[in-house]
Amino acid sequence: MSGIRKLQGNSQLRKLAGLWLTAALLAWSICGAAGAVFAQGRAEEKLSKLERHLGVKRSELIAKDDVSDLPVSPVAEDNVAGATQSFFNSASALPNIHGETSVENFWGRQNNLSHTHESASGFREFLGQWYWANFHYRDLEVENGLFHDAGAAYRNYDLWPRNGVETGIDAVRVAFHSSHGRMSNNVFLTSMGAKSYYGEWDARSDWMALGGNWNGSGDERLRYMFWDTCNSVMRSGGNNPWSTWATRSKGIRFVFGYETTSIDSPHYGWYFWEEWAKGKTFRDAFFDASWRISHSQTPALVAFGATSSEASYRRDNERYLYPEAVANNWAAWSWCVSHNIYSNFKVSLAEALANGSRVSRIEVTGRGNSNKEVVEIADAFGIQLPDESAIKSRPANIKLVRTDALTLVVEKSGAFELLLNHKQEEAESNTVLSDESLVARAEQMIDQLSFIKKQELRAGVIRDLNENAGADGFEGEERVTEKTVVFDQTINGAPFIDPEAGHLEITFSARTGQVKRVRNSLKAIKVEVSDDVAAAVQVKSYEQARQAALAEFERATGGNAAAVSSTEIIEDSEAVGYQMIDGQATLVYRAHLRSSAYPGMRPFQAIIPLVK
Fold first, then answer.
1. Which conformational region is residue 55 in: left (phi greater than 0), alpha (psi within -120 to 50 degrees), or beta?
2. Could you give the CA distance from residue 263 to residue 428 in angstroms, rounded to a whole number?
3. Rounded to whole angstroms, how far apart are CA atoms 330 and 328?
4. What pLDDT sits at residue 17?
5. Domain 90-334: which CATH class?
6. Who is most buried in 282, 331, 381, 612, counting CB within 10 A?
7. Is 380 in contact with 414 (CB distance < 8 Å)?
8. How far apart are CA 556 and CA 264, in angstroms?
């Protein structure tokens, strides 16, 4: 009997245990469901905030498989069904699409440059994926006959046959020139690598006829001119883009250049096309390429047309290289300039050095644009991808996802952009929103848009997109159309000063406040900071860094005595912060240098690592 009771007891225990397990499983299931509901609620809240901040609907965030509207190449005829390509209808053995010139050696007349050949090569190599260049001249091959079409002197050399190929800027649809440049009373002058037959070392705008013969119009080929120089499209100092370039326009559609000086960099040519490959207009691609090179220069461009509205529409919307000539009655120009938001946000050089010396270890997690990484970013912003086939590969190693509301673009560095597709027209009567109000709005969006969490950010600068238009004897009023709030990533209080890394940028319509673009180049960083003086990292002093920068400038000039003896560090160009070097966040000193002996010279950028 006792044995029976024991078995019965075990049976009861098993029943009780079964009931307990069932209850536990039920409780776990309820908790799990509650947790899932909570997580779903958090995700729902996040998406709702994104919808509100970006002005998009969730139904518009489904990836589109059909992206047939993306350009095949930059050339207009390649993107129009049934268009006939007539590039070879000339004496030239090449397609007459593009040609590039660059000068680095100035034979002691000016300080030498270091990166103009690479800049021009980048421009050529991108277009070379489809079309051979008519010419790609360097140094001694570059003289002003390639640019001049002065009928009075019978110098129509800007479309000239050489060995069966037509050369000169009017032999091609788009030309790119990288060198020194300067403006004098609405006349642009750029330095050549060789002296002309007539003894001149410069090409000058008042001897040019862009897109046609001196007394003609549209009877030659140039439609787009890129001046990778200083001071080539100016609106300050009594200069005016219409007076400088519309008077020289014989069919050209665009001139690209700089209001200010522009640093010597190898990236201008390639970066322009890389930005264009993201689906941007020529205007946005040009300005964003310059921004990736330096935040302290002012890119500018001017477009032409028969009316103000035609010129303005072309300036803001054109994205293909068209062959058709346009009238020069009106010019419409744009430029980008940045300014500090608050003076107290600027970290002093001494403070940045002190903060940097206390950072004992920095670990950077590298990112790229593999399909897996693109899916991760898309998911964070509520973009629904049916599968990886919705991720499109573009030229320049770009990955892209299109939806009805926006385009996600991811670069090979892992930096990405959200380009909003809506184009809400601004009412002319609307007043420009204040910097302070847009910074406050942007600060509310940081958590949703930063993607990489647990990083320190501070508001740094605002970049303004400005515009104006004019004609003979008339100039409109300047207006700002966009404002971009830029947050800098910081490491122990010292900011990233690398223009390509460590920033979150939110672009607003200047009057409506509508978000137009988001760019994220933040880095995933883990930092160890030590207050132990004995463990402090040894860094160069401010004076040691300056001397190293001066030595770099001397080497870059080839020891040019006149340049070295008149070297100066450009005011407000010095900064201490972090730059990505070989995949590592490196504390550096940065300065721009020039020689006062050579007016119009491009600044030299020195970047000096500070950790010994």
1. left
2. 36
3. 5
4. 44
5. alpha beta
6. 331
7. no
8. 11
As beta bridge partners, residue 392 has 400
- Burial class of residue 7 in the structure, from the number of CB atoms within 10 Å of its CB (0-12 exposed, 13-18 middle, 19+ buried): exposed
Amino acid at 488: D
- What local confidence, expressed as pLDDT, does residue 9 receive? 41
List CB contacts of 298: < 8 A, sequence separation 6 or more: 258, 259, 260, 335, 336, 337
Identify the pLDDT of residue 535: 52
In the chain, the amino acid numbered 181 is G
Q: What's the CA dihedral at 497, 113, 569, 238 to 10 degrees?
A: -100
Q: Would you state the structure tokens that stand for residue 336, as one six-digit string?
A: 């980008």
The residue length of the chain stands at 612
Q: Which two tokens stand for residue 536?
A: 């402090």
Residue pair 233/302 in contact (Cβ under 8 Å)? The answer is: yes
Which residue positions in the chain have pLDDT lower than 50? 1-42, 88, 344-345
What pLDDT score does 534 carry? 52
pTM (whole model) above 0.85: yes
Q: Which two tokens stand for residue 549?
A: 């920068």
Question: Taking Cα atoms as reference points, which of 99, 371, 342, 331 lies closest to residue 222?
Answer: 99
pLDDT at 31: 46
Q: From CA 56, how far away is CA 516, in angstroms rounded?
A: 11
* pLDDT of res. 33: 44
The single-letter code of the amino acid at 553 is F
Instruction: Please enumerate in sequence order all residues whose Cβ is within 8 A of that of 366, keeping only pairs 6 or more positions apart, or say none.
Output: 414, 583
Q: Running DSSP on this structure, what letter comes out for residue 131?
A: -
Q: What is the pLDDT of residue 411?
A: 97
